[in-house]
Amino acid sequence: MNKQVFPSYNVNMMEDQITQQALELHNRLTVVDCHCDTILEVARGRSSLCKPSHAGHVDVFRMREGGVKVQFFAAYIEPAYKPYGSLTRALQLIDTFYSETEAGRDIIVPGFNLRQIRNKLKEDKIVAILGIEGGEVLNGELAVLRVLYRLGVRFLGLTWNQRNQLADGVGERITGGGLTNFGREVVKEMNRLGMIIDLAHISEAGFWNVLELSRDPVMVSHANCYGLCSHPRNLSDDQIKALAERGGVMGLSFVPDFLGSGRNGIEVFLDHVDFVAGLAGTQVIAIGSDFDGIEKTPEGLEDSRCYPVITRGLLERGYTDKEVTDIMGGNVLRFMEQVFKN
After folding, report:
1. What pTM did the predictor assign?
2. CA distances from 265 to 12, 250, 338 (A)
3. What domains, with CATH codes, occur in the chain?
């Protein structure tokens, strides 16, 4: 592994501003990020997961500095490959994922089941959870889903913004369409396998269809609150409450368009945390940065070194150590215990 070449992330500023309580707490946390698009950026040659680079938002060195312990990596299928080239493109991205984690195996390892994930965390490894963003990859075949599971895929975003064979995406919301019959079969099979169902990007009708059908809780990996910012990708109050009631998690994102305007990036992000906490409690809250899937990041949330500042901000807003621990990753670990079958 190459030696880190990044300057520290505002270390002097953080030492001045983050209380000793926040630093000590952050060092004990299992920080989990529910969504990044880094694998696509690596496959495009724009960044590297295991070599220091000023490109992109995520690599093992910056994750180490930010205290990230579990990172969900989404293989996003670009529109140019849809629908017929989706599976081939997904396999290329899966190959990139394994090539990168093999190169960085001293620091980062794929995560497949609860026992293995816990063991790797004890070994002080970063755990990488592999998923795919867009059900086009299945080509209408449940057999493909089962093979992808055998290849280590542990979460699937049923749609991106468009309609596919599973459901309508949020970009098709005017139609009122939800899950198709095939989409229903996929939900049931994912429950059986113990795969995480990701409802980011799905239409509202599809969201409610899945919550009614799935016997396991579900995840919305990267979205924010419609009540604070009326972007169609954000969740309504009723969706947030229903997700919480069913034991799911909502990864609050750093996407500027989802956050809305405000004093600065961290404060606006924390406003969304406060909104969800007041509406549905803290047990549903997680982090889903969308790093490497956004061109511009909010002030103070520039890359994966930023998480200690979020810990400090949560404490400053009056959250208890237990609530901060849950928000920064504990809720996702609890959620995975409910979904994974081993």
Report:
1. 0.94
2. 20, 19, 32
3. 29-339 (3.20.20.140)
